[in-house]
Write a structure and sequence with these properties.
This protein is mainly β. The chain is built from one helix and nine strands. The protein has a four-stranded antiparallel sheet with strand order 4-3-6-7, with no helix packed on it. Strands 1-2-5 form a three-stranded antiparallel sheet, with no helix packed on it. Strands 8-9 form a two-stranded antiparallel sheet.
Length: 144
C-alpha cells in the first residue's frame, strides 16, 4: 500500500518538472561600477542567430538607450563581452540583459537582471484615491 502511495506522489510531481521552461545554456555575468558595466557571456553549446540586448530600467539611463549584439552564430565555449556606460553620476536602477537564439534547434530566451546603486527607499505614505460624485478621481494628500 505504501509503495502505491509513493508511486502516486512521484507521478503527481513529475508533470510539474516536465513543464519547466527550458533555459539556454548561457552564463551571464556583469561587473558593475559607477561609470558603467562590463557584461560577459559564455555559451556552453553552439547557438545560431544569437541576439543580446542590454538596457536600463527602474531609472537607470544608459549612454546608448539599448545596447545590442547583432544576430550571429556562436560556437560552443564561445564568449562575448559588451561594455555599457551610465548617464547618471550616481547610477541607480536595474541593468537587464536578455539573450535570445537557437540552441539545439530550439528557440530559447534568457533574461538576467543586475541591481545598480543603492535601492530606492520605500514610500513612507501611500496616496488614497477616492472617487467623487461624477466618478472623477480625488486624491487625498497628507496634511502639512
Amino acid at each position: 500500500m505504501r509503495a502505491a502511495h509513493a508511486l502516486l506522489l512521484i507521478l503527481a510531481w513529475m508533470p510539474a518538472v516536465a513543464a519547466a521552461k527550458p533555459q539556454p545554456p548561457v552564463r551571464v555575468e556583469a561587473e558593475v561600477s559607477l561609470a558603467g558595466a562590463v557584461v560577459r557571456l559564455q555559451f556552453a553549446v553552439a547557438a545560431q542567430q544569437v541576439e543580446v540586448q542590454v538596457r536600463g530600467v527602474d531609472g537607470l539611463a544608459l549612454l546608448q538607450p539599448t545596447r545590442r549584439l547583432a544576430r550571429r552564430d556562436v560556437a560552443a565555449g564561445g564568449c562575448a563581452q559588451l561594455t555599457v556606460g551610465f548617464e547618471q553620476e550616481v547610477p541607480q536602477g536595474t541593468l537587464v540583459v536578455s539573450v535570445e537564439g537557437r540552441f539545439a534547434n530550439e528557440r530559447q530566451r534568457l533574461v538576467r537582471t543586475f541591481s545598480v546603486g543603492a535601492p530606492l527607499p520605500a514610500p513612507t505614505t501611500q496616496k488614497k484615491m477616492l472617487r467623487g460624485h461624477r466618478g472623477r478621481p480625488l486624491h487625498l494628500l497628507p496634511a502639512s
